[in-house]
Amino acid sequence: MRRPSATPRRAAAASAAALTLALTATACGGEATPASGGELGGTTVTVAGVWTGSEQKNFTKVLDAFSEKTGAKTVFVPSGDNVSTFVGSKIEGGNAPDVVMVPQVGVLKQFAEQGWLLPLSEKTEQAADSGFAPVWKDYGTVGGTYYGLYFKAAHKSTVWYDPEAFTQAGVSEPTSFEELLRTGRTLADSGRPAFAIAGQDGWTLTDWFENIYLSQAGPEKYDRLARHEIPWTDESVVRALTTLGEVFGDEQLVAGGAQGALRTDFPGSVEQVFGPRPGAGMVYEGDFVGGVARDEFGRSPGEDALFFPFPAVDGGKAPVVSGGDAAVVLKEGKNADAGMKLLEFLATPEAAEVWAEAGGFLSPHKEVGLGAYADETARQTAESLVAAGDTVRFDMSDQAPAAFGGTKGAGEWKILQDFLRDPSDPAATAASLEAAAAKAYKD
């Protein structure tokens, strides 16, 4: 993201014109990494992605390491949430970046089908074969050709909580979904609503659905629904929506009720739990919650910002849903060959460990040492993600066409926001999802 990707999808404030000015300024030395001697000395590699704030700052450290190794200058340009529109406009204007960090499988497929991408080099493919579980290469492959290297991953099956709230309520970490709801209601009775829900950001709602669906319906049906091989009106979807409605429809469980949740964005949901004026006990989202709690609100993951795995639903297995950002090389980039060299670097443990040390990062690379991560919580989530191997399932909305699974105010995001507002008719919501999905997959 679900966006963002896998990570918080804060919209970039700059307009396309401002982005062009930023690119010109950095290319002229404003914020570009200075070149030194090396095989790519005198070359500038432009990278576009959704990252802003601390994520952009930490990725720049990775680019700095690449520059030091090769002599290339690097420029990072924020794309905003709609990567597809941004890249399309840049290609049309003759100003395409060399590399794009793509936060959605569906968008990666779209880029490949439109002929925008170069196949990755043999060196990158070999690194992926040896260093990653096959599922990560599968998600970067379209029509048998490997286009996307998954560099940054997210563990999107973590529920974060304030231990002080749990202590005050006399509750412990739940191990089933039913126990999770009971824990939430006990929290509410003690003075804090259970969950801060970022309903303003539709991608967070898709993540709720996906964890419930994967655990309840199982991985085979999850895969089939992700490929739209079964309709969204399937009984399994209605059942998962009914379960999700138990949360959305209970004001004890949703901080501020539905209307409050719909006014809350992702950073705001973390603030409600870990900020100076706490208004909820828990926030469900990916491992990156810990980074926001630390960077924005001074919490220490593993100490006063804790998590537990999203619990199993109705006797199923506990889900492991992931997301990620894939690096791709555009054919139209002015320095695509140098961009390919960047991807060869990103495929190494060395590159991943730069960001791992900075925090707010997980790598799917099996050879990244756990000691490289900034804190014990990051080590635990990284170990869990790698250990899951091919049982990991990628964020379903990120696998869908962007019109259905990745567009603000449309498709699944909008329909689940409507469901948060009124969860009384799961079957009608399923029908709306199917109508939107059928159109998007057909187009």
Automatic annotation (TrEMBL):
Short name of one Pfam family: SBP_bac_1
tRNA-binding recorded as keyword: no
InterPro entries hit by this protein: Bact_solute-bd_prot1 (IPR050490), SBP (IPR006059)
Signal among keywords: yes
Alphabetic keyword roster: Signal, Transport
Cleavable signal peptide: 1-27
Protein family: Belongs to the bacterial solute-binding protein 1 family.
Name of the featured protein: ABC transporter substrate-binding protein
Organism encoding this protein: Streptomyces sanyensis
